[in-house]
Amino acid sequence: MRKALWVFLNLMAFHYFLVFRTNAMVQEKAEATIPVTTLSPPEGNTTFLGGTTWCVARPGASPTDLQIALDWACGLGKADCRAIQAGGPCFDPDTLLSHASYAFNNYYQQNGNSDIACYFGGTAALTQNNPSHGRCVFATSSESIKASAASSWEHKAKSIWWKIDVILLLLYLGQR
């Protein structure tokens, strides 16, 4: 009984160490971003021409190149592509051009609105025309994207750990 309690308490301590370490790593990652020198002011999505910019897919781009760029943006690029999944507010129109535009803009906003963050192998271009439509809102502020990404990560981490807590508690109670 005493050994089981000791094991349970050590597992719980290890669990909380992992949770706090994960949160610290997320915060470190956000603080460790290297600023890219651009001609745009760093505090928002504005250009010297005096307008807000969005990054969208080029209509004449090859579908193969667009798909590769979209896959990269939603994968290694870490753009938040949940809105273009089935049932999401930006799923319709269900076209490669529309989905790529949303993902490209999300990546562009997360990465400081720099020209290089809207290249995607030549498949993307900057626009001053807001591509938002209906319920689908294209972001204009990298801060709002970072905040939603961080809260999404924290929610996922918490939802996993409470399940582990329940399993550990059941294992502990089962040994009694």
Topology summary:
Blueprint (H helix, E strand, L loop, with lengths): L1 H30 L22 E4 L5 H12 L21 H15 L13 E4 L14 H33 L2
Helix pairs in contact: 1-4, 2-3, 3-4
Brief digest:
Its main location: membrane. By secondary structure, the protein is mainly α.
Q: What can you see in these coordinates?
A:
- This protein is mainly alpha-helical.
- The protein has a domain at about 55-145.
- Helices cover about 50% and strands about 5% of the residues.
- The chain contains 4 helices and 2 strands; from the N terminus they run H-E-H-H-E-H.
- The chain has helices at about 1-30, 65-75, 95-110, 140-175, and strands spanning about 55, 125.
- Strands 1-2 form a two-stranded antiparallel sheet.
- Helix 1 (about 1-30) runs antiparallel to helix 4 (about 140-175).
- The longest helix is centred in the C-terminal third of the chain and has 33 residues, at about 140-175.
- Mean pLDDT is about 75; it is low at about 25-50.
